Structure formats: C-alpha cells, structure tokens
Model the fold of this input.
Amino acid sequence: MPHDAESDDSLYDQGIRYFNDCEFFEAHEVWEELWTEYRGPLRKFYQGLIQAAVALHHFGNGNIRGAKKVYLSSRGYLETFQPACRGIDLEAFLGQMDRCFAAVMAATEEFPKLEIEPDLIPEIHLDPALAAAGEP
Done:
C-alpha cells in the first residue's frame, strides 16, 4: 500500500476505534502498520500508542510483568509529545493510563495476580482543536 497522509489518517483513526472497543491487539496491529511505513517526526508518538495498546493487552491477559514494562516505555514515548498530539489530550490520556496501571505499578510480587479494572480502561477521544498540537 502506498504511504500517504490519507492512509496514515485512516490507519490512525481505525486504531483509535479498535482501542476504544478494547480490541488492543487489533489497535496495535493497525498502528504498527502505520508506524512501519511512517518516517516523519511523529514516529515515536505512534510507537507510544502501539505500546499503550500492547500494555493493556498484556494486562488484560494477566501478563503483569509484560504490561508494566511496555506501559513504562509507552509513557516514555508519549510524554515527549505533551500536552497534546494529533487531537489527543496526552496529559489526560496518560493520567487515565496511570490510574489504570496503578495496581500494576504498586505490585511488589514477582508474578502478581491482578485483573484489569474495566472502569479504569482509558479511551481516546479526539479533540479537533488539538489536531495540530504537538506536530513539528
């Protein structure tokens, strides 16, 4: 598939729909397709979204160690694009992720038995006023 802004937008939006439907593996796959072809200044932003989806996927499947590791790397990528990027209020999104992963971060056991709290799962809501925010 040729790489262009229209296909980037389509993949970005499709990933958000999967993410908000808690289809985190599918969101990761779609965003990874975008990330693989993209060579611009938002590459790390897309990588952060991919890893946020993977972290939630791991958490939902009980892989708490994997969830923690990928969650932390996701934060590292996304924090640099705060306060907002491509319509996402990253400060709010990262706050939602922090609340969702609070028990994961607090766990001291080597293999903690935790379940994701459905009410704390983040959603991505695009704000058109923030659409160009964070873009170089």
